[in-house]
Structures
1.
Amino acid sequence: MKRFAFLIPAAFSLAGLWSPPAQAFKIVHSNDVMGDIEPCGCRGLPKGGMLRKETLLKGLQDPELLQLDAGDLLFSSESVPELLSAESEIQAKYLLKAMELLHHDAVVPGEKDFALGLSTFEKLIKNTNIAFIAANLSRKDGKTFLRGFTKVVRKQANGREIRIVILGLVGENLRWPEQLKTEPVIQTAKRLAQELRSEADLLIALTHQGHEADRKLAEAVPELDLIIGGHTQAFLQQPVNYGSAAILETSYRNQFIGVLTPEFEKAKLKKPISAANYQAFALDEFYEPIASAGKTPVQQLLTEFRNSLAEARKTREAELTKIAQTETPAAAVFQTTRKCAECHPAQFRFWKKSPHFGARKSTECEQCHGAGGNHPFSGVYQKTVADKICLGCHTKISGAQRARVSCKPAGAPL
């Protein structure tokens, strides 16, 4: 997956220095949240979380916010191990509840949003007041699925109403549930843009297809004003004006939230959109709420979420204990890297980018970490790889390299 980063001056990282136009409402957007309701858990300075987003939105002080998400919202991978499915569904359910509390408007689904299957996806969104839209994604059996677009109205500070139409579009080459089918993005966008342009002062394509595909869409459909995208997790940091549209995308896992303040002149959008009208806010500890201020609605929801998750984990641990008691030591045999990837997708992706992938001598997970067997029930799997294991293959290295040998990112010397 390609990622993009377009840099802007460091001063723009400070919320206090941003002075958007006073007359305009704000568009808040995210993409590839990947189920994170709390901060990402990164080793250094973890970012994200719906509680911090709540603080940011309050600070914007705009009752006319338009909030959009560009997919891969509910889950972090395209499939979830059966043992983790109950916990993953609980997390997705509470993430949607948090977004409702923050008055989120619309979401276009990504392929990861179907990690627990089509029926679970439909169950999760059935009672939400958030609009899930996808004009070129439908059921093969002809049953009603998602709306293709949604219409909203926002007021500027001077009272003028701005009519907004948001189209949902997904990449036709992504892996969708077998019950669904896609139509070509550009063909669908052209048809709907021509039909709806006269009804919109602002026409937005909310897409889940990737940055390069968004550029092609901007070039092919000049009626579009904005393209808010996801899937490639591009950190654009400022609008990319391409063709007649501005393209927005802001990293992943709610680590950064994009805020655009579009300017209008007699209900017509001013183009091209300036970088001064946009800010990517890092959801770091600065946005933690003040403890003495009392619990916010999202804080109360998080307490409920943690309790529900703890109960689900107790149930899972009881199941693991029951299964483990029936296992025999003979079960500690080698599995496959693909089996490991079911529960460790991030590590699997890292391994595929490393020199170990495709090496002449087998360097699959258990070659270094030990036999997983029926892990986590049995086996001799080791989380940390001992230096002597690495040195078993990396024999022709200098003394200095030998002193610091360890598993490192792709391209780093041993």
2.
Amino acid sequence: MKLNFERKHENRYCKYLRRLLFLFFVNKTNMGLEMRKTFVGVLFGVLFGVIDVIPMIIQNLSWEANLSAFFHWVSVGFFIATVNLNLKASVKGILIAVISLIPIAFIVWTSDVSAIIPMSVSTLVFGALLGYLIEKFGNKNKVHSQ
């Protein structure tokens, strides 16, 4: 009976995952433009979070630091997608990423000053890329009025 219960939940989660992938890759008309942009922002945030955490795992840093860096990029992707600033996409990405880095930088500074430079460089690069990619792929269905 327990095996049947686990399969039932597994099928339900697979069904949710299939719906999510269907909404993103196939059925683009069902999702509003703002919802799509937010979803793309979080998706790219997850991707950049994984990219940022891989070297941290190789260096055997703590799981708290890894999770902090991962969720930092997920939240940066969300905020880049939802904040409405009258700036170019890459500049908006850099601005939001740098603003969100400031509290983390103060915490890191107290323990390891040499880590600030790579963190700053990756924040500038990842912020610009996130801003550009979210703007490019989040507004794919945008209707241009002429």
